[in-house]
Amino acid sequence: MTDLVVRRLLIDLEAPFDRHWCNGDAFRTAFFNALSMSFPVGEQFFIDSVRNGYKQLPAAEQQKYKAEVQGFVGQEATHRRLHALFNGHLEKQGLVNHWAPRSQRRLKKMDGVHPRHWLGITAANEHFTAIFAEWMLENSDLLDGADPRLKTLWLWHSAEEAEHKSTAFDLYQALGGNHEWRIKWFRRVTVMFLADTLRQTVSNLRQDGTLWKWSTWKSGASYLFGKRGLIRNAYRPWRDYLRRDFHPSQQESALSSRWLAENASAFAAVGA
Ligand SMILES: [Fe+2]
Ligand SMILES: [Fe+2]
C-alpha cells in the first residue's frame, strides 16, 4: 500500500514558452510535446479504469484500496489538467494533436468491456510511464537548459508516476486478471505506444519545419539509442513485465522520493 499525496504544482503555466523549450533542441521538444499530447485522454482512461475497477471489488477489498485509489485519481487528474494547459500552448504554436482523437476512437471499443481489461491496458501503460519516469529522473541533467517551469513539470510528473506505478497493476490482480491477458495487453500497448509516439513526434517536427534537419536526427539518435538513450536503457525493464512473478514495486524508484524531498518548494500538498 502506498500513501499517495496529491500535489499542486507551484508553476505558472499560463505564460507561453519557447517553440524549442527543451534547450533549443527540436527533436527533444517534439518528442516531449508528443507525449504530452497523449496525456489528457490517456490519463482520463487510467482514472476511469481505476475507479470502475475499484467499484467491482468486494467491500472488504475496497477498504484496503480506498486511500490509494483516491490518491491515484487525484494525481492523474492534476497531471491531466497541467498537460492540457501545456497542450493549449502547443496548439497556439500551430502543432496539431492527432494522437488524442485516435486514442479516443480506439478506446470507444472498450465500452461495455469488463474493467479488468481496462486495468490490463492501464497497468501496461503505467509500466511504460514508470520506465520513462525512472529514466527521466536518472537523466534529469538532460533537461538542463530547458524552460525551468517545464523541467519541474516533467520531473514532478515522473516522480508521481513512480509513486503510483503499482495501483492499476494491483487492482488488475485483485479483480482476478490473469498473466496471459496481462501480457496480451502489454504487447498491444507496446506496439501502439511506439507507433503513436513516432507518428506524433514526426508530425510535430514536420509542422515545426525541422524534420529534415541533420541536427534533429543526430539529437534523436543519441537521445533514444545513445549510451544513456531511452530505448537502449528501457529494454531490460520493458522485458521484466513479461515475467510471471513481475510486480511494479520490484523496480527501483528511490529517485522519485529524492526528487520530491529536494524540490518540496515547487509544490504544495493538497489537503495537507
Ligand atoms: Fe500521470
Ligand atoms: Fe500514472
TrEMBL record:
Name this protein carries in UniProt: Metal-dependent hydrolase
Source organism (scientific name): Noviherbaspirillum suwonense
Phylogenetic classification of the source organism: Bacteria, Pseudomonadati, Pseudomonadota, Betaproteobacteria, Burkholderiales
